[in-house]
Amino acid sequence: MKSDLLDKLEKNAASMSKGQKKIAGYIMKNYDKAAFMTASALGKKVGTSESTVVRFASELGFKGYPELQKELQQLIKSKLTAVQRLEVSRSLLGDSDIVGTVLAGDMELIRQTAEETSKENFNKSVDAINRAEKIYILGVRSSAALASFLAFYFNLVFDSVVLVDTSSNSEMFEQMFRIDENDVCIAISFPRYSKQTVNALRFIHDRKATVISITDTVKSPIAPFSDYLLVAKSNMASVVDSLVAPLSLINALIVSVTLSKKDEVYGNFNKLESIWDKYQVYEKDETGSDE
């Protein structure tokens, strides 16, 4: 299935100028490479000018070439195989300072997430979570680690939290078949998006449960099923995607929920501290403080 962008390029190719056809043809065949080329480099590659590339982007409906480039980068996150990702990462990073480059990239993703997160959706998500009779948390593959982290802390706050086991399709639905309009499902999905998550959300949406989606873009395949969409930026880092910003957003969600239920959480934590101390859950140093 083609993306909206590739489909648009194919449909409009007949009406393009000779130079624009070269650009469109190159992008359709090499979108993984074009996504990281400047307008000047792309023009040079296909034998046309930088200004032609810029006009090409504008005539496709983009505000400028950077917006077209961003669309291409979003496209490759969901389409590239692991081998292709590794090849792209090698060409981008080369012999650069990998630690510095990756950490700087993560900081930028957190900054963008802080600026673009809908505070209204975030606050409504917290309210929906606090009202829910049962909270289901769903994350597949790399997103499973984020789901597990969120479930660990929510289990300290709420009585009815279900971390959906996604190791089997049939078992996944068996765990969720009682979900209804009184419940909330927090779904987490980042490229490469899992069909398993999409299928589960289709079922959950039909059961009229409230869906809170944590994903990387409004164009994510799980976005249409969302009552509240929380967008956290991610980017490709070799064969993996950076999930630092999503984890940071989940941290904020945990903090906000616990503060909104501070009296109940205070009581829970006092009981837990007694249990942890009695059964020596945590090591203590010689001064008696936890390590």
Strand tally, please?
7
Helix content: 55-70%
In whole angstroms, the N-to-C terminal distance is 53 Å
**CATH level-1 class of the largest domain:** Alpha Beta
Report the major sheet.
Answer: 5 strands, parallel
Descriptive account of the structure:
- The chain is of the alpha/beta class and 291 residues long.
- It has 2 domains: 4-79, Orthogonal Bundle (Arc Repressor Mutant, subunit A); 110-277, 3-Layer(aba) Sandwich (Rossmann fold), CATH 3.40.50.
- It is built from 13 helices and 7 strands.
- It has a 5-stranded parallel β-sheet, with helices on both faces. Strands 6-7 form a two-stranded antiparallel ribbon.
- The longest helix is centred in the middle third of the chain and has 19 residues, at 98-116.
Produce the secondary structure layout.
Blueprint: H1 4-12, H2 18-34, H3 39-46, H4 50-59, H5 65-79, H6 82-93, H7 98-116, H8 119-131, E1 135-139, H9 143-154, E2 161-163, H10 169-176, E3 184-188, H11 195-206, E4 210-215, E5 228-231, E6 236-237, E7 240-241, H12 244-260, H13 262-278
Parallel strand pairs: 1-2, 1-3, 3-4, 4-5
Antiparallel strand pairs: 6-7
Question: How would you describe this structure in keywords?
Answer:
Rossmann fold, single chain, two-stranded antiparallel ribbon, 9% strand, Arc Repressor Mutant, subunit A, alpha/beta, 2 domains, five-stranded parallel sheet, 291 residues, 7 strands, elongated, 13 helices
